[in-house]
Design brief:
heterodimer, A: mainly alpha, B: about 110 residues, mainly alpha, 3 domains
């Protein structure tokens, strides 16, 4: 994806967001929700449950945890804790994306709906192209971008639910694997700037061992340890 | 209670709320953050490290359906994808070739 984008007005920025999402991003995210749809079916939930989950939770690791815990008959408290722990990443993501997308004069509650649509792909793209756009155009660009992804994931959940018997397992598993591959390439494409690059590398190195240490809290630990270390080491350089 | 048709809906509602609470907290806490500040830069570093850790973990130690695929197959597919990307600089074809190589590995090892 291009790093430099320019739009004459908010409508054009919204349409630009739609266009940018309707390609590799939609395909990569859609592929993993095919896998989610198949998982929903295996767990004995209905297609509607899968669609409601995708529409209202819209954070795949938490949705997978929810379905797996439902399938083994876990209680509501256990489900809330597991899903909540898997969603902690959203806090630093929202805290860094919202200040970039803030519209002059709008109160914070203006964003309560749109934060629901913050997920890894939209976040990474706005963090990259956002600063080059005028502040007033960033939110409409994000809205267009993420609406395409949201609609795609709903469609993919339904297709994944209805089609699991058609595709061989090797293919469905590989489709699910497109998501981490896509994210890896997305970050690799973006290894500009000492601080960002060091944060990504340290996070990648710390993530798996810390997960073995504490599955629930490893993400927060990885972020705080790796991010702080990268921040301190690059303090005297231009980010 | 788990036999009721309401049970799955309760599970869905709890999962949605447990996720949204972090987004809501983010809205509450981000009101005064200046994108030019050191705090913002630190928070961005934390987010990048966290997400890089998540993505690496999804490849090395996946949860969900990928757990049944061998580590060597996933690492090979990631290496193929990376190799294609370094040569072509094109994201989508590299990802598809990487995914295709995993599908190939899995179908060959089954038969």
């Amino acid at each position: 994806m291009k790093t430099e984008l320019s739009f004459p007005d908010r409508q054009a920025a919204f349409r630009g967001g739609l266009r940018e999402a309707a390609g590799a991003p939609a395909l990569a995210i859609g592929a993993s929700f095919l896998g989610f749809g198949a998982l929903v079916r295996e767990s004995g939930l209905t297609l509607w449950h899968g669609l409601i989950s995708t529409a209202t939770t819209w954070a795949l690791p938490g949705q997978v945890a929810m379905v797996e815990l439902y399938a083994v008959g876990a209680g509501l408290v256990a489900i809330a804790l597991a899903v909540g722990a898997s969603a902690t990443r959203l806090l630093p993501m929202v805290m860094t994306l919202l200040p970039l997308m803030r519209q002059p004069g709008a109160p914070q509650r203006h964003y309560l709906l749109w934060v629901h649509f913050i997920a890894l792909t939209g976040w990474a793209v706005i963090m990259r192209v956002g600063p080059s756009l005028p502040p007033a155009l960033r939110l409409p660009f994000f809205q267009g971008f993420t609406l395409v992804l949201w609609a795609t994931t709903l469609l993919a959940t339904a297709i994944g639910y209805l089609l699991p018997t058609v595709l061989p397992e090797a293919v469905t598993l590989s489709l699910v694997f497109l998501t981490p591959l896509y994210f890896t390439m997305l970050f690799l494409e973006d290894l500009r700037g000492h601080r960002k690059a060091l944060s990504l590398v340290l996070g990648a190195l710390l993530g798996p061992p810390l997960f073995l240490l504490s599955p629930d809290w490893s993400l927060m630990l990885t972020g705080i340890l790796g991010g702080s270390l990268a921040f301190v080491l690059t303090r005297n350089k231009r980010a | 209670m788990q036999e009721s048709w309401l049970w799955p809906l309760a599970v869905l509602a709890v999962a949605a709320l447990a996720t949204y609470v972090w987004r809501f907290l983010g809205v509450l806490l981000s009101g005064r953050i200046n994108p030019e500040s050191a705090f913002f830069a630190w928070m961005a570093s934390v987010a990048y490290a966290l997400l890089a850790g998540l993505v690496t973990r999804m490849i090395v130690l996946p949860v969900g359906p990928l757990i049944e695929t061998p580590l060597a197959a996933r690492l090979t597919a990631a290496a193929v994808c990376l190799f294609c990307f370094l040569i072509t600089r094109r994201l989508l074809p590299s990802v598809l070739i990487g995914g295709g190589s995993l599908a190939l590995w899995l179908s060959l090892s089954v038969s």
